[in-house]
Amino acid sequence: MKQKEIKKKINPVRSFLMWKNNMKIILKTSNGINKQSGAAMLISVIFFLFISLAIISGLVSPSIREFKNANINLNSKKSFFLAESGSEDAFYRLITNKTIGTSETITLDSNFTTTTITTLENGDKQIMSLGDVSTYQRQLGITLSASTGVSFNYGVQVGQGGLSLTGGSSINGNVYANGPITGDSSSYITGTAISANSPALTADQTNGIGIPAYNVAFGNTNSTQDIAQGFKVSVLSPLNKVQFYIKKTSTPSNTTVKIVNDSGGKPGTTVYASGTLSASTVTTSYGWIDITFSSNPLLNVDITYWLVIDASTSSTKYYTIGASNGGYADGFGRIGKMGGTWNNTTPSGLDYYFSIYLGGVNGLIASTSGSQWNQLHIGTISGSAQANTVNYTNSTGNIYCQTGTGNNKPCTQQPDPSYVAFPVSDANVAQWKTEAEAGGVYNGNYSVGWAGASLGPKKIVGNLTVGGGGILTVTGTLLVTGSISLSGGGQIKLSPSYGTNDGVIVSDGTISITGGANATGSGVEGSYIMMLTTSFLSNAATIEGGAGAVIIYAPNGTIEIEGGASLKEAVGYKIEIEGGSSLTYESGLTNNNFSSGPSGSWAVESWGEK
Question: What is the domain count for the chain?
């Protein structure tokens, strides 16, 4: 009995011990499970993190790569357009005979393009422009060759007689005048109007008259590449233009004319002014050629200066200048190379045929009303007014002047515009006359009626009349020693054989286009006919009610445009436009290719990325 009781007492203890042991086992098992679960969770998190990073990297990397490529592409395009800007700037300066060196740099938004102009052995020009944006570079190249052509860069180009606009007349284009530009409030110019300071009517310094005793070739070898003439001016006045009596062999390129200092009896390297001698104005026969400058330096009295023609070298394409022995007292000629060796002429002491013109009258743009309430309108589409003095003018763009009154804007200061030579020289005209006469001579007045006629090349010793609805088809250059009258619905047109080329009719008398008559090109777009008169009269050319695709050219006299006439280009010593007439400039006039005559404008041989 007691043993049973003792067993009963012992069993609870054993049970407790067994329970305790079991709990230890359970706790150990539980701890093991918890530890294994934590490790698995950590591994899962790390694995998920790596997968997420891989996914993010896969998504972001292409975006970063595309962004980088886009940035490279953008900089490359910027570089291309910058290079294109440099090449186009150089091209524009060459074809418009503006001054440009052998290299220029244009900077835009801290990026730059460097353009170099090289004269090739055959006289062609090569323009290379390298654009650089953040070290990404693109290069463009243009090759230009001398071609037949005359460039008319303005809708109207006027000499010292000036331009007058009245009665609601208009010019759709730009105007460049070597004299005053005036007009009433009903008239307007859609583009830029420039009135330059005109040169004096007589030369301050000159040498040479008649047939030259000596003919000096230059630009044909390295030792005879350039020529220079020493001179002194007699009055303190700005240089305006110079002239040379010169001819060419074949088709040499344009040259640069410079005014430089004296260095020990030879030309120095300090350049006071530079301009371009346009090859298109020089012919194979001697003629006086005008050269103008991009600036007008003030030349001092009794100081020796040198007038230099800086040419390229070609054994087959070069220039020849007339010279005399001891004809000029205040200087003498040299031949050699600018920046190199200068030698005496052969024989020593020759003086070249040249003339130097100093400043004349200051440029003026003004309304004839004399009132700020009735202003002359300039740049009605876009453009500026530029002259030494601008009065009573309303300009869309800036007004560049030294003095002004009654304008819609104050004067913006800049140097006065410089004199610009006409695009056709006396030598060009002489060559056209020779070509016309080579086709034969017709003695007497030549009339064309309803039956029509074809003519050219031909010299007419008399007058030319086209009327009664008749059509004169021009098949070659014409020279009329008398006057030309085109009226009554008559028409003068170029033969279809001219194609895109232009033709010319020269008159030593007056030109009259009236009564709805007109003159046109060949019918192909870009073809024009130029009617040129050498007359000095106040009615050298009269255009009334008609005209057409015609260029009217009167370098010595006055052009009168009235009665609602409409034409494409006018160049004259003085031009008067009135009665609602208009002149609309066309871009094709920047490079007119005449079937005969002047040569030397620049034609594009190649243009593209290098």
Answer: 2
